[in-house]
Design goal:
Blueprint (H helix, E strand, L loop, with lengths): L1 H25 L1 H9 L5 H23 L1 H26 L19 H30 L1
Helix pairs in contact: 1-3, 1-5, 2-3, 3-4, 4-5
């Protein structure tokens, strides 16, 4: 289980964020257009068009280094939680219409499938963070 939580889960997260960032950056104008359809001001969308892929790429870098991996896992968990809350709000019809601004395969998922997909990655992310915390507590004593 230690190998799974310390190596496999971070590798899966790297794949997820690499795919997500690459699909956004591959067609940045399409991504910008999708963000303009979201239920928030265009100025915020203009910031997110570079901020989201930038943060995803930053998380990838953090996950590659042992000393920075915990920070990467925490930021990853925050991102996944934010995206999952947003998807949940869409499913609860908080807004009249919420188009998906994900790229590639993820953009073709239904909201329910996307929610389940995110929850799987949240659970994996929590599993990867938890042993790190226990390990640090043992080092302090």
């Amino acid at each position: 289980m230690k190998t799974f939580t310390r190596s496999v889960i971070p590798a899966l997260l790297v794949l997820l964020y690499t795919y997500a960032a690459a699909s956004k950056l591959a067609d940045i104008e399409k991504f910008r257009g999708q963000l303009y359809l979201q239920p928030f001001p265009h100025g915020f969308a203009d910031d997110l068009v570079y901020l989201l892929p930038g943060v995803e790429l930053f998380v990838i870098v953090l996950l590659f280094f042992d000393r920075l991996r915990r920070m990467g896992l925490i930021i990853s968990l925050a991102l996944l939680t934010a995206f999952t809350i947003y998807i949940s709000m869409g499913l609860l019809h908080v807004w009249k219409r919420v188009p998906c601004s994900c790229g590639g395969v993820l953009e073709h998922m239904g909201w329910g499938t996307h929610l389940a997909f995110n929850w799987i990655f949240i659970i994996l992310n929590v599993l990867a963070v938890s042993p790190e915390r226990k390990h640090e507590q043992y080092k302090l004593t």
